[in-house]
Design goal:
By secondary structure, this protein is mainly β. About 5% of the residues lie in helices and about 35% in strands. The protein folds into three domains: about 130 residues, Sandwich (Immunoglobulin-like); about 260 residues, no CATH class; about 80 residues, no CATH class. It has a seven-stranded mixed sheet, with helices on one face. Strands 10, 11, 12, 13 and 26 form a five-stranded mixed sheet that branches.
Length: about 500
């Protein structure tokens, strides 16, 4: 999801006071108070931001936390909110902790400063306020850190061929709005494709598809809940009335023999800014940035429209101020190899690794597979039918700086992808492509050679919804990715 870039500067004044009462001497009431001030990046106060104060009881030696009081307020026109909770000490004599959370979506960071308390340090030694770091996608990595990490470790690219190279593109280069979708009409008996019809012609079906599938006519264009394949009884355009399967997909113009020609205008004009997608997860004690790269087609050894490639950058921590690369997993043709910092080729510093983009083969040096390699050279026995791939680096160099547009609210540059269920697709219908299982292109693209595994020239699904061999949130060799132990040419 596109990350919004507001920063919250929080000034919290905490007070804990004891209020006297006519109750028995063992009873008294404790007041927990937080004074919060919220600003945006330009130090302007922000109103209407929800802020929650939580008081927890610390239970047992293992220091488990149990919520005993919460209260929520909203910042006023001056950006201020005052929050107060009252706790009966007689009922909750344990040591307590005090937390303040900014729960308004869209804000990415908060800093607690000027904190003090008037409570007795002896009696309430564990009352404190937690520094606030919003984590909207709930992956235990503060959102503002995700942005900084994605920039700090963004890779550079060496493309393969001098004239037929393909660059990392936003998915919009293919066309992923609702009106860009196409519909395969399939034979119900053998699954064969009988027609491929633009969704904009859905009224030519009898009955129209929009009368059956509500998402087709939504005013905001949200199709995030659309099924990949559907059963249909009716009459598709120009066909007999009957029972069919429909499957939805995206499409890149042309066929294998014309893809490169159709892409030429993008090579010349760069109509779509270079884009890389960053997804964060934690695994085996590492913070991992899974950089996903989209190419509109792959005319390498196995031709297919749409191509999702990736690398994993494993870090020793989440704080961009002091995190470092532990290793990088490079993925290519159902194989992966791991490189450690002393083996990684960097672009000028120790934080921006090179991706050497594949690559031609013995049949055609000008092909471009899009695979992500750590080094230039001939990579032996890597692809279908055990072919060798040449990674030359003879194409353009794309520096990591070209991805650092400073805007995490657009669809280009660096785009951060959370888990699919962390996006409100009514707010961000342009991200619907991320949640559906549509193919990023056509099936059964032209392929001139024999020996290709079934489906090897079909377009892929998106990175988070692949129906098999999914490596979303995974490290190393897994789900069909074999470990590749050699260096090029060995």
């Amino acid at each position: 999801m596109r990350k919004l870039t507001f920063i919250l500067s929080i000034l919290c004044v905490l007070s804990v006071s004891l209020r006297t009462s006519s109750a028995p001497p063992q009873w008294f009431e404790v007041e927990y108070h937080a004074y919060v001030e919220v600003f945006d990046l330009d130090n302007n106060p922000v109103s209407g931001v929800a802020v929650k104060l939580t008081v927890d009881a610390v239970i047992g030696d293992e220091e488990r936390y149990s919520v005993i009081r919460t209260c929520t307020g909203y910042t006023n026109s001056n950006g201020y909110v005052s929050l107060t909770c009252y706790i009966d000490y007689y009922d909750y004599p344990q040591m307590n902790c005090m937390f303040v959370d900014v729960i308004e979506p869209g804000y990415t960071h908060a800093i607690a400063t000027g904190v003090y308390s008037t409570m007795s340090r002896t009696l309430y030694s564990d009352i404190w306020i937690m520094p606030i770091h919003a984590d909207e996608d709930e992956n235990s990595i503060p959102d503002i850190w995700e942005q900084e990490l994605a920039e700090k470790f963004c890779p550079s690219f060496d493309l393969h061929h001098s004239t037929r190279w393909i660059a990392p593109e936003p998915v919009e280069c293919m066309g992923v709005a609702r009106d860009d979708i196409k519909v395969y009409v399939r034979n119900v008996y053998n699954g064969g494709i009988e027609a491929d019809i633009p969704i904009t012609n859905q009224n030519q079906f009898d009955p129209p598809l929009s009368s059956i599938y509500e998402w087709i006519n939504r005013s905001n264009g949200n199709y995030s809940d659309a099924a990949v394949s559907l059963e249909y009884t009716g009459r598709p355009p120009g066909m007999a009335r009957g029972y069919y399967y429909l499957s939805f997909h995206f499409d890149y113009p042309g066929v294998a023999s014309t893809w490169s020609q159709n892409y030429q205008s993008e090579r010349v004009a760069n109509n779509f800014a270079h884009t890389i997608y960053a997804h964060f997860f934690q695994k085996d004690g590492y913070t991992v940035i899974q950089y996903w790269i989209f190419y509109p087609y792959n005319d390498g050894f196995n031709n297919h429209e749409g191509d999702w490639e990736h690398i994993n950058v494993a870090l020793d921590g989440s704080n961009p101020a002091n995190s470092n690369i532990v290793f990088i997993d490079y993925y290519f043709h159902h194989k992966t190899c791991r490189r450690y910092p002393y083996e990684i080729e960097f672009d000028g510093s120790s934080t921006h690794p090179y991706i050497r983009v594949g690559g031609g083969d013995v049949y055609n040096e000008s092909d471009a597979s899009g695979a992500s390699y750590p080094h230039l050279g001939w990579w032996r026995n890597v692809g279908s039918a055990s072919y060798d791939e040449h990674v030359s680096g003879n194409g353009p160099n794309i520096s990591y700086t070209e991805f650092l547009d400073g805007d995490f609210t657009d669809n280009t540059g660096i785009v951060i992808l959370p888990e699919r269920d962390k996006i409100d697709y009514n707010v961000h219908p342009e991200m619907s492509w991320f949640n559906v299982g549509f193919l990023f292109g056509e099936v059964n693209s032209d392929w001139p050679l024999v020996g290709l595994p079934a489906g090897g020239n079909d377009a892929p699904q998106g990175p988070a919804v692949r129906d098999s061999e999914s490596i979303w949130n995974k490290l190393g060799h897994c789900d069909g990715y074999d470990y590749y132990p050699w260096y090029p040419g060995s």
